[in-house]
Amino acid sequence: MTTTADAGAPARSGNAQSVHELFEHRVALTPDATALSRGTERIGYAELNARANRLAHLLRERGVAPGSNVAVCAERSPEVIVALLAVLKAGGAYVALDPKQPYERHRTILTDAGATVLLTQERLLAGLDGLEELVGHPVLLDRPDPTLADRPATDPGLPGDPERPAYIAYTSGSTGTPKGVVVPHRAVLRLVTEPNFLTVGPEDAVLQFAPVAFDASTLEIWAPLLNGARLAVFPSHEPSLDQLAETVENEGVTIMWLTAGLFHQMVDGPLHRLSGVRQLLAGGDVLSVAHVNKALAMLPGIRVINGYGPTENTTFTCCHVMTEPVGSDTVPIGVPVTGTRIHVLDERGQPVTGEEPGELYAGGDGVALGYLGRPEQTAERFVPDPAAPGRLLYRTGDLVRRRADGVVEFLGRADNQVKIRGFRVEPGEIEAALLARPEITDAAVVAQEHARMGRRLVAFYVADHGLSVPELRRGLAEVLPPYMVPAAFARLMALPLTLNGKVDRAELRKDVNRDRPDLGSDYRAPEGEVAAALALMWGDLMEIDEIGADDDFFELGGHSLMATQITADIATLWGVEVPPRAFYENPTVAELAQVVEELKR
Length: 601
Description:
Radius of gyration: 24 Å
CATH superfamily of the largest domain: ANL, N-terminal domain
CATH architecture of the largest domain: 3-Layer(aba) Sandwich
Number of strands: 27
Region (Disordered): 142-164
Domain Carrier: 525-600
Cofactor: pantetheine 4'-phosphate
Largest sheet: 6 strands, antiparallel
CATH topology of the largest domain: Rossmann fold
Low-confidence stretches: 6-12
Organism: Streptomyces albireticuli
Keywords: Phosphopantetheine, Phosphoprotein
Strand content: 15-25%
Distance between the termini: 65 Å
């Protein structure tokens, strides 16, 4: 059985065949309209186009042309948007690097992508030192070349090609190294041109909140800029829930995207401050029915949209738009988005009968070109589409059921891949990093469920002697992004096996150890009411029964989403707002307790 949502070419303005051509068409229509905003800063469509054109001409001089891959490592800012447009106008594909990821991962991605130029910001240079041998001298976006103003402000005029790569997104790889998904211009146009799940026009302001290296940014950035709306860029710092809500209010945001975890926290927190938002998209993981229904009840007239899709099918494959309370036990992933075909197939690759479960295959204009430089993996996951000769279907690995009304429900994964805080994670990549240590002879990583924080990664390892958690965590943090570093570690004498001799991951998922981990330091009891309460807060979220005054938040397995939840709990209990950066500057229970005490005075 196949479901289609207008799987032909998406409607486009004029003869635009590429992202930048459609943007240039929009510039011609509304040159003076505001394209970007951040606080008091405003940039019009014509000005944004001129800035991007000057940088594009510079990139052309640096050798960027169709087939070139250009790395962009920068924090959220208007200059990042200029950079992405410039790369496309020069004919290249952008490769977004998350500044928070470790140096070795940056080097791996730059080498794999064959990037020839690196665009970055001056404040990030120290963390990129030594990469000049790969990409030459970096182009600084926040300290432009003095000669940039002398370059033409006119469009480079490179003809568009819908099959030309627009960007390469790196996802976790089961073999131990990330793999690059090559996304063409047609796939981006299919996502944001007259989508059936979203209405966006000149009256809208869309929040740019996701890291550019996260594929939700594709929707956030190009939906407004290709439809005449305003892109409201969130500041580069880590936000609290109140700071996020304040930005939404001040910028007049009408459309925004949140990962499932942050959506749940916002619903439990300052949701009333999103009253100006008319379309709230959430996803990256399973949404809670209770939280969706609460959002619909508290924000009359809002549309809550559950967005589902792998990077290989360009951000969204299916969406479920909700304006009325969900009456089922789960939130469906909905129906195919515009320009998409889906098939639900059994293990033999044949259509399932009726509402039987099967694997979801996605086709249409959103399908990527494959994995960069990985023909075998591409052939495994991208298969011929029998309904469209010469086109491909992407095997998602997701198990779904299609209801009689055509709405699709997500059932789970057919393999070990998991979603952590909205990011796709292959446990095999983490296991490979653990096994690279000579002391470790076997390892398995599983995702365990937590009532308040969703999934967390737990690493089980076999070694002759125990290793301190900070030692393990630091080693992994040198090669893996923060979201792939496990929240907890456990040493076993041997990994449990099934009757077939495979690692019994189901058994490991049930193995919850609430003991204080080996942090390489002695336990000291928290002193005072605030410190004791903070230790209990941390322990509840980290599933650790005993946390000491000198224990480090991040060495215990804390992360930014958890810090956001704790700041909300602190505000509820004591009526003070602790900025998220306080966790980095004061990472122990005792130090954070002192911050809270000072704010209470």
